[in-house]
């Protein structure tokens, strides 16, 4: 997102009750992107790349598409808007189909991303009269808004800054072609949003070719026109090859049937309970994946860090938990994800720090260190600004994945786990709980129940992995953490505390007795511990009380809408805008379902009748995040948060709740907590696919 677009959105939404002005939202529209670029298609047909975290190239930063009578002037162009139209996917593919109501009749737009190419086909054959297609496409090569140049190649345009060169080509050429110059400081600083595209200016002649925006009119001789965009790095793809590729794509997919065949060739089948949810989860997780298997947390809607710290990065907590959930679900459903697991394990080995831990976050496209604020183990000073749960989560996945490997790969995983064990020990205090550090929500420091849960699960998974010279030591550590968790028990509330305040806090050593959905991780951690140690009856009683109380206390069902689910923790004030109460989070709701299902499974293994009521809790919470549920958008995708009046907010889709949903379905299926009537079959892409989302349209 470029500054001019952020300022335009700020001017448009500065007083909005639920929108944060200046963001590049993805809560409407749909994504396309099966293997490389991630392109958003809004409900008015505007395109925008969210590709940088995945491929290291910025691409399209703004666009607009429309039609006008053949041979007419610019002033007669009808730019598409979201009023009166409709958007869908073609079947189960990532081909986005958007219909537009225009004064000339209905016009259909087809969008498909294939690797580093995106194709847009506009079909006006059912409209009245002969129409041309107008396209305004703005590129931001190397993330730049200025110092950009254009080269014209007849039926193609090249837009560049330095390393990144982006291309636009039309299957029918261009009737007219011009650059779109900046509006100057008055437009940027004015009270009203700048129009896009701007009217033709008679200003300096060179402005049109010193801009990233291209305005073209495409002839539509048979009632349709097609244009393609291609993102490249000049050092990796010569100009001649790039021009050939973008021209070939525009010509090859110049009709609807060709686009449909290409889209259908990239999907497979999945069957089983809640197959529509399983298919959507795998689509989202593949959509957010980079070539190394590392995933962006979500589309980066706030690149200026105005209201958040950004989302287009790989966090090792989210990513490794997703990896573990995928591994468990693959074992249950036979999803054929062995390549995903292998890529994840390799990337974790390659990104591990010398001390055995992992950094705060990295870039998905190459695994290099990304901007962050919790890199205490890379900086001078103490380790408080470090999220120890991330290392614990990676260890849990790798220890579980070890059973899937052999030979040199298994040895490499074992070496990684040995270093990680030492790294965890460095942050384990003498009392058996992790030392003061940052929490999973990244908004506080202390000694958290969630961090202790990740250590219990990691040490237990290591003990179960039967690694010579390591598993016995890991079991001893797991037993230490197991005993120490009782230090966090709050008898008055029947829960485990959110945290013990750190030594630098005003309430140092005291317990923060609030309910925290992250502390629900204790449920699955104890189930893993039960494979190598004994969970006594008192602990089991406390876990039942904890899960039941936390899910009840954090549950909200606001009267303003149909949405319902769990908040993050008591007193959470983040991104509430004008809302007084805490917002509902899909991560927390899915976590509640998974925790209840995990504890139900644990109880079932012990023949405990309380398993039934916890299975009912799991089903109720899962229902809110399933397709058709109150927190799930129309395409089956989950936004991070939802306002009480029903407006989705923040990163959409967010990978973490999708993985939680998938793992919960797999676990509930294994323990027969799901009705047989929920079984169905859906098609899904083998690696990447489509999704919900988009920013607001310009006025």
UniProtKB/TrEMBL annotation:
Gene Ontology process terms (BP): carbohydrate metabolic process
Record GO terms (molecular function): hydrolase activity, hydrolyzing O-glycosyl compounds
Gene3D superfamilies xref list: 1.50.10.10
Pfam short name (any one): Glyco_hydro_15
Domain DUF7997: start-end pairs: 1-244
Family: Belongs to the glycosyl hydrolase 15 family.
Name used for this protein in its record: Glucan 1,4-alpha-glucosidase
The species this protein was found in: Halopelagius longus
Organismal lineage: Archaea, Methanobacteriati, Methanobacteriota, Stenosarchaea group, Halobacteria
